[in-house]
Specification:
Strand 9, helix 8 and strand 10 form a beta-alpha-beta unit. The radius of gyration is 21 Å and the shape is globular. 56% of the residues are buried. Helix 5 packs across helix 6. It has 428 residues and is α/β, with parallel strands linked by helices. The strands form two sheets. Strands 1, 2, 3, 4, 5, 14, 15, 16 and 17 form a nine-stranded mixed beta sheet that branches. An eight-stranded parallel beta sheet has the order 6-7-8-9-10-11-12-13. It is 36% helix and 22% strand. The chain has 16 helices and 17 strands.
C-alpha cells in the first residue's frame, strides 16, 4: 500500500490552539477550554489534518512519509480558521449617509420607517446587476479572508421579491464555488416588509411561504431560513408561520430575535428548535432558558450594538453562566455593522460583552461552526477535519483582542493550501 506524502507541515508553532475535545457546542466553563498545545505542529494531507499536537509527536507519526512543503510558524500563535456565522454579505450600495442620523440619535427602527435602513439597501440591491453584486461581495469576502475568516454564512434579504432574493443567493453560491472561503447560504426573504407591501404584511408573509421558500428549495440555493422577529418588522406569530413552513420545506432554522424589544423571539427559537438565535440584546431570562433547554446557539453581534451606539449589549456573560452556547459574528451589513473584521469583534466581545479571550475564540471557531451546521468539518484542528488554520503575528491568544485596530493575520491555510501569506492574498 502506497505511503502517501504529507502535503504541508506547519511546524515551530509556539502556541497551538486546537479546540479539540467536544462534539457538541461548548457551554459554561468549557468555553474557556481551548486545547492549547505548546511547541506544536500540524501535518496536512489531501486538504485535511493528518496529525496535530506537539511537534515531536507529529514528526514521529509522519517519520516514514515524505513532506512536500514545510511552513515555519516562527514560534507564533496558530489557531483554527475563524468562522463568521451571521453576515449579510451580498448587497448593493452602502449607507454612510445614515451616519449623521445616528449621530443625531434617530433610532434604527425610525430610520427604517422613513424608508431608510434595510429598505434603502433593498432598492440598491434590486437595481444592481448580478455581476456587480458578485464583485462587491467578493471584495468583502477577500477582506474577511485577510482577517482570518475561512467559513462565512451569507443571508439574502435585500431583494424581498423572488427574482432578487434568488439573485442574491446565486451570487453567494458562485462565491462558495469560486472563492477560497466556504460560504453557507441562508434565505432571509423575511428581513423586512417591502415598500410595495406596506400595511399588508400578511400578504407578504404568504408570498414568502407559498412562493419564495419552495422555489429557493427547488433550486437548492440555501440551507437555512432566517426571519427578523421584531416590533415593526415581523411579529412572533408571523415568524412562527414562516419558520414552520421553512422547516416543512427542509430548511434549518435561524431567527433574528429580541434585538431591540423583548418580543419573545428567543422563546420561539427554543419552541421551534432553531439551530441559532441572533442578536438577543433584549432577550429575557425566560427566553434564554428556553434556548438553553433546546440547545439553541446564541449568536451575539457586539459590533452592531457598538455601531448603533447602544449603552447595553447582549448578555453573553449571563448566557455562558447559565449554560447557553455562545457564538460571535460580525453581522457584516451596510447599515448597522459595516465591518468585515472578526478581529474587531474579538475586542468588542471582551470589552463590551465581558468574555475572556478563550471564550471569544471558542465563540468564533467551534461554536460558530455548530451555529451553521459545519462542526463536523471545521471549527477545530482535529485529525480528519478540513485543514483550515491561521498563523497570527502574535505569541499568545490574549494579544489578539488586546492590541486592537490592526490585522494580526500573517498566514491563512484553507483546505490545506496557503491562501494568505505575509498578510496578502495568494489566491485570486
Amino acid at each position: 500500500m502506497e505511503n502517501k506524502a504529507i502535503d504541508l507541515l506547519v511546524h515551530h508553532i509556539g502556541v497551538l490552539v486546537t479546540m479539540r475535545g467536544k462534539d457538541e457546542p461548548r457551554t459554561g466553563r468549557d468555553m474557556a477550554e481551548v486545547g492549547v498545545v505548546e511547541h506544536g505542529a500540524v501535518a496536512i494531507r489531501d486538504g485535511k489534518i493528518f496529525a496535530v499536537g506537539q511537534e515531536e509527536e507529529v514528526r514521529a507519526q509522519i517519520a516514514s512519509m515524505a513532506v512536500k512543503q514545510e511552513l515555519d510558524a516562527q514560534g507564533r500563535l496558530v489557531a483554527p480558521g475563524l468562522i463568521d456565522p451571521h453576515t449579510h454579505l451580498v448587497h448593493g450600495g452602502s449607507r454612510e449617509h445614515e451616519l449623521s442620523l445616528k449621530l443625531k440619535g434617530v433610532p434604527y427602527l425610525e430610520i427604517l420607517a422613513q424608508g431608510g435602513g434595510i429598505l434603502s439597501t433593498v432598492r440598491a440591491t434590486r437595481t444592481a446587476s448580478e455581476e456587480a453584486l458578485y464583485e462587491k461581495a467578493k471584495k468583502s469576502l477577500d477582506q474577511m479572508l485577510l482577517y482570518g475568516a475561512t467559513t462565512v454564512e451569507a443571508k439574502s434579504g435585500y431583494g424581498l421579491r423572488l427574482e432578487d432574493e434568488l439573485k442574491q443567493l446565486r451570487v453567494a453560491k458562485r462565491l462558495d464555488e469560486n472563492h477560497p472561503v466556504d460560504v453557507v447560504s441562508t434565505f432571509m426573504g423575511a428581513h423586512a416588509v417591502p415598500e410595495e407591501y406596506m400595511g399588508r404584511s400578511t400578504e407578504y408573509v404568504d408570498l414568502v411561504i407559498h412562493e419564495m421558500l419552495p422555489e429557493v428549495k427547488r433550486q437548492g440555493l440555501a440551507e437555512f431560513c432566517d426571519v427578523f422577529c421584531e416590533h415593526g418588522v415581523f411579529s412572533v406569530e408571523e415568524s412562527r408561520r414562516i419558520l414552520s413552513a421553512a422547516k416543512a420545506n427542509g430548511f434549518g432554522l435561524k431567527i433574528h430575535a429580541d434585538e431591540i424589544e423583548p418580543m419573545g423571539g428567543a422563546q420561539l427559537a427554543g419552541e421551534l428548535g432553531c439551530i441559532s438565535a441572533e442578536h438577543l440584546l433584549a432577550a429575557t431570562d425566560e427566553g434564554l432558558e428556553a434556548m438553553r433547554e433546546a440547545g439553541v446557539i446564541a449568536v451575539c453581534l457586539p459590533a452592531t450594538s457598538f455601531n448603533l451606539r447602544l449603552t447595553s449589549h447582549a448578555r453573553a456573560r449571563a448566557m455562558i453562566d447559565m449554560g447557553v452556547p455562545v457564538a460571535l459574528s460580525t453581522d457584516y451589513n451596510p447599515g448597522s455593522s459595516p465591518t468585515e473584521s472578526l478581529q474587531l469583534v474579538m475586542t468588542l466581545g471582551c470589552l463590551n460583552l465581558g468574555m475572556t479571550p478563550e471564550e471569544v475564540l471558542t465563540a468564533m471557531t467551534i461554536n460558530a461552526a455548530h451555529a451553521i451546521g459545519r462542526a463536523d468539518t471545521v471549527g477545530s484542528l482535529e485529525v480528519g477535519k478540513q485543514a483550515d488554520l491561521v498563523i497570527y503575528d502574535a505569541h499568545n491568544l490574549a494579544y489578539l483582542p488586546y492590541h486592537f485596530g490592526v490585522n494580526h493575520v500573517d498566514t491563512v491555510v484553507k483546505n490545506g493550501k496557503v491562501v494568505v501569506a505575509g498578510g496578502r492574498l495568494t489566491a485570486d
